Structure formats: C-alpha cells, structure tokens
C-alpha cells in the first residue's frame, strides 16, 4: 500500500495491475462534494489500449465503482466525508498475458535492493 499526501487530500492505493482490482482511498473529502463515477472513468479510460502510444498492450476493461464514503450508493453521489473508497477492476480472475517468470509477486524494491534471489520463480 502506498500513501501519498497533498495540500488538500491524502490518497492510499493497494493492489497490482495483474490482480483482480486496484483500490484507492481518498482521505480528507469534505461532506457534500458531488462525485461522479463517469468523471473518474473518463480519466481511467485514457490508458486503455489504442488510446495513446504509452498505453498498456494488454486488454484491461477496468470499471470504476464508488464503494464507500457516500450518502447514496449510486454512480452519482454526495460525499459523506471523511474518506471515499474507489475500486477499479471487477475482473473475475487475474489478468493473463504475463510470461512465466516475468513477475514474482514481490515488490520491486525488495528485488532491486537484495542481492539474494528472493523467489525460486525469479529467473531474470
């Protein structure tokens, strides 16, 4: 999990791109702020394959769902404060397209900072 803080909001994220979903929690949300899932989805769609040359080559039909921190559980809602949870994914299984040995499931910092092989699967 990574936690970032700014002048207005704090953001925590968890999950992997090859997992079933990625979760984001935004802290410091004032009550009564109007949030639309479609607005968040529009920004997420910018990274879909074919949208630009820097996008992922994998097909990822991620969908934004607002899970908690709202007055009404709907696609358009007012924030209840102090935090809103957003999930993007809803895949039924892990994303395919990773060659065997491509990822070990370990944080990259643990692999880079260690001279010992931390996983039997690590062959790079």
SSE blueprint and pairings:
Elements lengths: L1 E4 L4 E5 L7 E6 L6 E3 H9 L17 E6 L7 E3 L4 E7 L18 H6 L11
Antiparallel strand pairs: 1-2, 2-3, 3-7, 4-6, 5-7
Quick rundown:
The chain has 124 residues and is an alpha+beta fold. The protein contains two helices and seven strands; from the N terminus they run E-E-E-E-H-E-E-E-H.
Q: Strand percentage, roughly?
A: 25-35%
Q: How many discrete structural domains? A: 1
Largest β sheet strand count, sense and barrel closure = 5 strands, antiparallel
Radius of gyration: 17 Å
How much is the average pLDDT?
A: 69
List how many beta strands DSSP finds. Answer: 7
Number of discrete helical segments:
2
Enumerate the spans where pLDDT stays under 50 for 5 or more consecutive residues: 106-116, 119-124
Order of helices and strands: EEEEHEEEH
The share of residues in helices is 10-25%
Q: What structural class results from the helix and strand content?
A: alpha+beta
Global outline: globular
How far is the first residue's CA from the last residue's CA?
Answer: 25 Å
Identify the strand order in the major beta sheet: 1-2-3-7-5
